[in-house]
Amino acid sequence: MKPTINLYQQIAANKRKTVLIMVGFGIFAVLLALALTAYFELPPVGTVAILSGMAILMLLQYSMASSMVLGISGAHPARREDYPFIYHTVEGLAIAAGIPAPKCYIIESPAINAFATGRKPQEGVVALTTGLIERLNNEEIEGVIAHEISHIQNYDIRLATIAIAFVGIVAVISEFFSRSLWFGGVRSRGRSRDDRNKGSGIFAIIGLVFLILAPIFARLLQLTLSRRREYTADTSAAWLTRNPQGLANALRKIVIDPYPLKQATKSTSALYIVNPLNKLSSAAANSLSTHPPIEERIAILERLAYTK
């Protein structure tokens, strides 16, 4: 018999790991600013300016994220009279989660999938494909909706948006840095050669190495955070429904679903309950996926035990 997992301990462990990852993002941002300052030999105020610029860019992307995701996915509001079960399920689970009922949106696609968006619970949206509504039973639909409501309840959308914006900014910085090297090296216009050799050379080299590896590090942090979000949402959904098997069965159907979700893009795929661009299991795919392996998620759900 497989050992059981205490639900509350699982949720607490996932939240602790998420906090550690977000601290890692903050440390990484400071190191990136210091690396740029060292390599380009900027004054100390340059570090503050770089961090401020990164924060402004992230805020701009964060403020537009929800409307952009809904637009890209082609989601439209669901009419209550057309989808009464969806509305009743969303409202009931939102009460259990202690958040305002999210808005219900529909994606016209035969594929089985869903996502949530919204910067805070008051702006939450749950979007479901028509394929999911038509091809899953009520328990499975409830499990999927509970998973998405858990994302809203846990402010996962906010974290995901910040992570996506951060990785994008790092990519832009890396591209700018690469071009500066290609076109002659900005550093040569800084202090004299003698001044640079007096202790600053080693910091410039460290900065160079860090800047080259920065996109890889940022992407790994994003992948780790995204996976922790999925584990937390799975276990939180099991708590809301008291039926982890419903979500486990839904995941089984989603992963073997033959229909492609044409509305999904690389920028939005991480938000779906299962990555629509990479549902098949393989060692290489799992190592680079924004979602943990489906088999592992199902195994955890089936081993969950409730503490009365």
What does this structure look like?
The chain has helices at 7-39, 45-73, 84-97, 130-135, 138-153, 156-182, 193-197, 200-241, 244-255, 283-288, 294-303; strands at 5-6, 76-77, 103-107, 114-117, 125-129, 304-305. Helix 2 (45-73) packs across helix 6 (156-182), helix 5 (138-153) crosses helix 9 and helix 9 (244-255) packs antiparallel against helix 11. The protein has eleven helices and six strands. Strand 4 (114-117) and strand 5 (125-129) form a beta hairpin. It has 308 residues and is of the alpha/beta class. The chain is elongated and about 65 Å long. It folds into two domains: 5-65 and 160-225; 70-156 and 234-305, 2-Layer Sandwich (Zincin-like), CATH 3.30.2010.
Give keywords:
308 residues, elongated, two-stranded parallel sheet, 2 domains, Zincin-like
Summarize the structure.
The protein is an alpha/beta fold.
Give the class-level CATH name of the largest domain.
Alpha Beta
Give the strand tally: 6
Q: What structural category arises from helix and sheet content? A: alpha/beta
Point out poorly predicted stretches: 186-193, 195-199, 281-285
Helix % is 55-70%
The CATH superfamily of the largest domain turns out to be Metalloproteases ("zincins"), catalytic domain
Number of folding domains?
2
Instruction: Please describe the biggest sheet, giving its number of strands, its sense, and whether it closes into a barrel.
Output: 4 strands, mixed
**In what order do the strands lie side by side in the largest sheet?**
2-3-5-4
How many angstroms separate the termini?
21 Å
Label the CATH architecture of the largest domain: 2-Layer Sandwich
SSE ordering: EHHEHEEEHHHHHHHHE
Radius of gyration, whole Å: 22 Å
State the shape.
elongated
Range of strand content: 5-15%
- The fold-level CATH name of the largest domain is Zincin-like
Output mean pLDDT.
80
Number of helices: 11
